Amino acid sequence: MTDTSRIRNFCIIAHIDHGKSTLADRLLELTHAVADRDMREQYLDKMDLERERGITIKAQAVRLTHQTDGQTYELNLIDTPGHVDFTYEVSRSLAACEGAVLLVDAAQGIEAQTLANYHLARDAGLVILPVLNKIDLPAADPEGTAAELAELVGCERADVLAVSGKTGEGVTALLATIIAKVPPPEGSRSDPLRALIFDSTFDAYRGVIAYVRVKDGVLRTRARLHAVAARMDWEAEEAGVFAPEATPVPDLGPGEVGYLVTGLKDVHLVKVGDTITSQGRDRAHEPLPGYREPTPMVWSGLFPAEGGDYGALRDALDKLKLNDAALVFEPETSMALGFGFRCGFLGLLHMDIVKERLEREFGLELIATAPNVEFHVARGDETIVVHNPSEMLTAGTYDRVEEPMVLATIITPSDHLGAVLELCQGRRGEMVDMKYLSTTRVEVHYKLPLAEIIFDFFDQLKSRSRGYASLDYESWGYEASELVRVDVLLHGESVDAFSSVVHREKAASYGRGMVERLKELIPRQLFDVAIQASIGSRIVARETVKAKRKDVLAKCYGGDITRKRKLLEQQKKGKARLRRVGRVDVPQEAFIAALRVDQKAGEKK
Amino acid sequence: MSAGIYVHVPFCLTRCGYCDFNAYAGLDHLASRYVRALLAEAALAAPGWDGEAVVSVFLGGGTPTTLEAADLTSVLVRLRDRFDVTQDAEVTIEANPDTVDAPKLGALLDAGFERLSMGAQSFDTAVLASLERVHGPDSVRRAMGAAREAGYANVSLDLIYGAEGETLASWERTLRETVALAPEHVSAYALTVEPSTPLGRQIALGARPSPDPDLQADMFGLACELLAEAGYAHYEISNWAKPGFACRHNLGYWERRPYLGLGAGAHSYREDRRWWNVRPPEEYLRQVEAGTLPVGGEERLEPSDAYLEEVFLRLRILEGIPASWVEPQTAEQFLESGLLREADGALVPTERGMLLLNELVLALAG
């Protein structure tokens, strides 16, 4: 147990690609946490998925030991997720720290995400250390970026440190500054135990591992513990620290950060943000503040491409849920896509990660419906929560519908401001404020429906700003909105997977886009197929796929009947992969292509 | 059961871009070896066909008429020698209009090749060019005249419709020209794009357009109409004949009667076995010259395979399938939508149904 006066808990706030992992590598080296021969790049990003995407999904806490002025300090580097989907997880990681290194690429400047996380850190009362990275790059603008940072943090330009994660320049000075400026944690050994769970992971052999920060008291291996929000008693099978590999310790004292092997098999019993205390009379009276249940923001139906894989998909989701407490799902039956699951995600990235893991780790081929938000429909005294557009009530049968709003922060070069504002206006946005960070960069706040953000907003923002604008957003509650359900009918039969809830003003153009797109995707049948979009009983768009007239092989090649039969058998196999909607055969590919978000119907290109 | 013999001649003057038959240009130097091999293969295969009456012989290709009349004659003589070829057997030879003249045709007719099947393809110069055919419309007229002059009374013309640049109007001219030449038999095939051909590759690359199936459907309809007017009976999807001139040999394939194929890549069928010779001519020559049957592959038909064949072949020749083979609701659905009609307890494809035969077969036999 280290005395609190020699403990420093800090995190690094940085935008993707601004060099957080490389700086962490240098810190590991300088503190001799990893033997030279074991060192590899991006050491802390353990999962395959993380390394490829260049982002960090799971928070980690690493203990570094640093000697200076004859003293030995315990420095805990707590990694934070860098994506808007995981804002709550970020806030819990921040709650485990006393200080934050605000790391900004000297060539890129501050980005929206960095700004959002900076505000979270400041609200959490953390000491902020502004640091410029990549000062070795020829394109770096240390002067300009330092000015921006000093302005943001409210410090002198001279207080902005400059480092190069690549060459190691300035990193020793950074360590000294962390020790000098980040306050040591408070907390007393004699108080009842209170420890914050700021992340968890699932290990196939040892069960759920909790990442914890002890606030008060002492957490001992084999102690009998109680988790407040989960209302769960368990025993700490092992306490330990990441140094950076897992190393068991007899106990964790106040201010210390480490892991706990819980022996539990269900990650939902180890909730991020929950407080761990002792059982019985040593139990703390008050849990730590800030616990929240994870709330899914984005929903999508996942269906196996092969109907027979339903059981495999269910098993895979059950397994994923073991180490992803934010994933929720319930069985869904679609007329068009068969049996599957309606899944709730923290955001689009979370959705992509889950889909990718299902496909990669479990070898499943999936069809995903277009993502949608959760709608609240008021009818008389009741509020109906709708996760699935096909379950949206028919217009006229309810009093009001509300949709989730977000406050978006966008930072863009002023050259592209016009295009960015046009995008936000076109997405039903309402400007909150705007300010110039420098003569060339602008920070804009917009209130936007979340539904508009999940329709390829990010891609549009990037393309309209030549990749320079950055985006972050936070929840801004629900607001009433003029939303209607648009249905797509094939030969008079509504295709539930294609239903969407859209703003009234955009509904007709959305319907038209979908119908035009499907016209290209639905193969000709033995009869004319009408493709229609409707709002309630009103048809807003219509196209026809003309009946096919010719499907026959002209000739049997000199008695080669075998070949002709094989062709027929092949055609039969192809038919088996079609899905039947009423009388219409629709190929799998048509569903996948029609549901793809990046070419969303009704979108101006 | 009455059998047929098919003899494959894999030589052509040039290769046409749409054709994926086992045919080669520039192998003329192999011709005399190839004829000797055909004679040898006939001798090798004959013992297995003892007691089987051969009611049709068909020399196809490639272009059989690239061989000398004497060589072709020797092949037919060998077949009559080793097989029980009946007196009234139908003996067909395929010809390219540019490889025949009256003397050669006279020699072939004398040798017993009584039926002549000529690849006319089109009477539109532009269409012939897009098919990469070397002959022009005049060669067809000339060859037809030569055939009649030589005494041919059973001539078939092959046509292909739906090539790039062909319109409904130009197809109508081709049909009218054909009818004016008064062949006993007409085959009209919708151009089918095979991926492995130069045409297939050009279309895959987007360098040429794919045939328009709707236009081909209209062309088919026009062929049905004009040929019926001219007294031709439609007896198979792509075949029409004056009374008594349906091709007995091809009917054998469709009626699942046994047949022996001789030559490179030729297919054979008997009972539940289908087999085929090796395709490359050199390989074929090597095996036959070594005294072995040049079989390249075979398959045994499961009852379900045989059933599927039976259904699609019967539907092709408009004989139809017994109504009792099909679930009444299924039959009803197609009778109602006009793809099938009922004739003497059989379900027969209508003109529209013929064009959608694959769909019909899969629904009826699947």
Number of domain modules of chain B: 2
Average pLDDT rating of chain A: 88
Radius of gyration of chain A: 28 Å
Count of individual beta strands of chain B = 17
Under CATH, the homologous superfamily of the largest domain in chain B reads: Aldolase class I
Note the beta-strand portion of chain B: 15-25%
Q: Which assembly state applies to the chains in this document?
A: heterodimer
The description of the largest β-sheet of chain A is: 8 strands, antiparallel
CATH architecture of the largest domain in chain B: Alpha-Beta Barrel
Proportion of residues in helical segments of chain B: 40-55%
What does this structure look like?
The complex is a heterodimer of chains A (605) and B (366). With 605 residues, chain A is α+β, with helices and mostly antiparallel strands. Chain A has 5 domains: 4-181, Rossmann fold, CATH 3.40.50.300; 194-282, Beta Barrel (Elongation Factor Tu (Ef-tu), domain 3), CATH 2.40.30; 298-369, Alpha-Beta Plaits; 376-481, Alpha-Beta Plaits, CATH 3.30.70.240; 484-599, 2-Layer Sandwich (Alpha-Beta Plaits). Helix content of chain A is 25%, strand content 34%. Chain A is built from 14 helices and 33 strands. The longest helix of chain A is centred in the C-terminal third of the chain and has 18 residues, at 504-521. The relative contact order of chain A is 0.08. In chain B, the strands form 4 sheets. Chain B has a 9-stranded mixed β-sheet with strand order 9-10-8-7-6-5-4-1-11, with helices on both faces. Chain B has a 3-stranded antiparallel β-sheet with strand order 12-13-14, with no helix packed on it. Chain B is an alpha/beta fold. The longest helix of chain B is centred in the middle third of the chain and has 17 residues, at 213-229. The interface between A and B is medium-sized, with 25 and 44 residues.
